[in-house]
């Protein structure tokens, strides 16, 4: 049995992917097919714990409670669950009136470190998915709130911070900012991933999970 929890923001949740409902849903489909092909195997579970608008600070507040509830069953079977964290894009969101990011870089670094160390209390099998680039022609500023901007120079910086913390904590990091830069992988708002973007995140996540033999 494998239990996988994906914690993160709207791109983790899969918003705007009307074809397959995001990269986490694709991962669930993969394991559901494996469940169906092997009726003697106890059911693998994938939980999507993505929340729209989430920052690292928000996730740090709720992660322990949600992880404890979903990973409880693994304790009964003496198996190690898998935790995937996908956060950072909303932390890099820029407020023009405050002239600052939603979560300042130093605080973001501390939050990522806290998230990884907290998650390791439940499982050694942790993976971090970095934030994706945006289409700045639509996000600087964002159409629905002219006070807010998502800028690639900021997202790239936050991605680098997360990667540095993951390296120090020995947690695999998927650099989606580098992988997706220069591609048309955002939906109409320029901020969220489209079908192609989610497919590429899924493929990168599946590769790591398979290589680590976590699935």
Question: What does it look like?
Answer:
The protein is an alpha/beta fold and 215 residues long. It has a single domain (3-211), classed as SGNH hydrolase (Rossmann fold). The protein has eight helices and eight strands; from the N terminus they run βααβαβββαβαβαβαα. The chain has helices spanning 10-13, 23-37, 56-77, 105-119, 136-139, 152-169, 176-180, 195-211, and strands at 3-8, 45-50, 82-86, 94-95, 100-101, 125-129, 148-149, 173-174. Strand 4 and strand 5 (100-101) form a beta hairpin. Helix 3 (56-77) runs parallel beside helix 4 (105-119).
Short recap of the structure:
The protein is an alpha/beta fold. It has helices at residues 10-13, 23-37, 56-77, 105-119, 136-139, 152-169, 176-180, 195-211; strands at residues 3-8, 45-50, 82-86, 94-95, 100-101, 125-129, 148-149, 173-174.
The total beta strand count reads 8
Order of helices and strands: EHHEHEEEHEHEHEHH
Structural class: alpha/beta
In the CATH hierarchy, the architecture is 3-Layer(aba) Sandwich
Radius of gyration: 17 Å
Low-pLDDT residue intervals, each spanning 5 or more residues: none
Outline the fold blueprint:
Blueprint: E1 3-8, H1 10-13, H2 23-37, E2 45-50, H3 56-77, E3 82-86, E4 94-95, E5 100-101, H4 105-119, E6 125-129, H5 136-139, E7 148-149, H6 152-169, E8 173-174, H7 176-180, H8 195-211
Parallel strand pairs: 1-2, 1-3, 3-6, 6-8
Antiparallel strand pairs: 4-5, 4-7
Short descriptors:
215 residues; alpha/beta; Rossmann fold; 5-stranded parallel sheet; 3-stranded antiparallel sheet; 8 helices; 8 strands
